[in-house]
Inverse folding.
């Protein structure tokens, strides 16, 4: 992302954090859940404010805009997208509360948090509840609610104390806050996913679990769309970070790898691939910068700008990480290097806020006016 002087300090902070806390242990962190979780890195991310970037200061955040979130996510995801996905998921949950005008409920969590995991709010951020058959139902008794049913792939469900759950109520759905320590909740083991291994998710079974409604009843879809419009650029920033990480590793490798008596960087075929990668990155930077400006200024069609940037950059990231693997040859498929992880992460991140085909269909429906 192209930044101004005001955002430079956040870019430097994210870059330094990624270099010191993430890059050296990337291979080990990616072994989760069959290896240790990076608690140390997560706690340090909390200490520097990464888990509350867009959260207002009176709620315990640092009160920055969407551009700051994008700059941080881009820098973090150049080294390890798993932490980026944790930051994104928590930001999504917080933004749902803000969109619903439920700051008072949110403050109960943020004001009591003393460490990273206490500030996290799990949510199924890789799905759009409107596009799936909801299997959690809410039952109302006077002014209280209980939830029963099952929920797949609750992101951060193994780490967080609270979760934001979309549940069916009558012919629509609402968001509810539940305590994951409730005796009516049963969790699966951590799901071993395609990518983002250190951003853990679990499946849930709920039986008469006490829940607190977030916002107004039946308004879940409205809150989700508001937040998805805003955070699509953040998802795009994650993919751009992956693209830059892939390019940088490929570029450095081609400068040190000798074959045929010369650096492979001097091969015209290699330069063509690197050039194509660099062009995709620059075009993505321009698209993301324009989209962020549109979101923050609420320009005409700002929501379309945000979603188009995400769809386009996520697609480019999948192509570019394939090239990143190719330039390393056989090494590109080895876990000793970061390219095969970036390839998996890029594919996984396409599902943020819903699957890609449905997001594309929704985009044209907005243009048609349906």
């Amino acid at each position: 992302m192209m930044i101004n002087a005001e955002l430079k300090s956040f870019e430097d902070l994210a870059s330094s954090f990624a270099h010191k806390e993430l890059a050296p242990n990337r291979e080990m962190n990616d072994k989760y859940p069959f290896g240790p979780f990076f608690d140390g890195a997560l706690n340090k991310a909390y200490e520097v404010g990464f888990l509350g970037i867009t959260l207002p200061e009176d709620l315990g955040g640092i009160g920055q805009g969407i551009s700051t979130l994008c700059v941080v996510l881009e820098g973090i995801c150049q080294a390890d997208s798993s932490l980026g996905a944790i930051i994104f998921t928590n930001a999504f949950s917080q933004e749902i509360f803000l969109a619903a005008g439920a700051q008072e409920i949110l403050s109960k969590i943020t004001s009591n948090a003393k460490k990273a995991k206490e500030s996290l709010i799990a949510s199924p951020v890789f799905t759009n509840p409107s596009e799936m058959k909801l299997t959690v139902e809410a039952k109302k008794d006077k002014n209280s609610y209980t939830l029963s049913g099952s929920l797949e792939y609750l992101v951060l469900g193994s780490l967080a104390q609270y979760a934001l759950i979309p549940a069916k109520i009558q012919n629509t759905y609402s968001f509810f806050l539940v305590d994951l320590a409730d005796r009516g909740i049963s969790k699966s083991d951590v799901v071993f996913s395609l990518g983002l291994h250190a951003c853990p998710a679990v499946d849930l079974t709920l039986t008469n679990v006490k829940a607190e409604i977030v916002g107004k009843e039946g308004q879940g879809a409205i809150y989700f769309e508001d937040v998805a419009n805003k955070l699509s650029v953040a998802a795009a920033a994650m993919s751009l970070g992956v693209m830059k990480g892939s390019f940088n590793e490929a570029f450095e490798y081609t400068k040190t790898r000798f074959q045929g008596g010369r650096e492979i960087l001097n091969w015209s075929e290699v330069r063509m691939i690197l050039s194509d990668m660099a062009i995709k990155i620059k075009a993505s930077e321009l698209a993301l910068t324009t989209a962020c400006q549109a979101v923050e200024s609420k320009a005409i069609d700002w929501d379309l700008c945000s979603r188009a940037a995400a769809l386009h950059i996520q697609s480019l990231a999948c192509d570019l990480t394939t090239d990143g693997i190719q330039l390393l040859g056989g090494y590109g498929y080895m876990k000793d290097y970061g390219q095969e992880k970036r390839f998996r992460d890029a594919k996984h991140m396409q599902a943020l806020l819903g699957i890609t085909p449905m997001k594309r269909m929704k985009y044209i429906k907005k243009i048609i006016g349906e």
The chain is about 50% helix and 15% strand. The first helix runs from residue 5 to 22. The beta strands are 121-122, 136-141, 144-155, 162-169, 172-179, 185-187, 201-214, 258-259, 262-263.
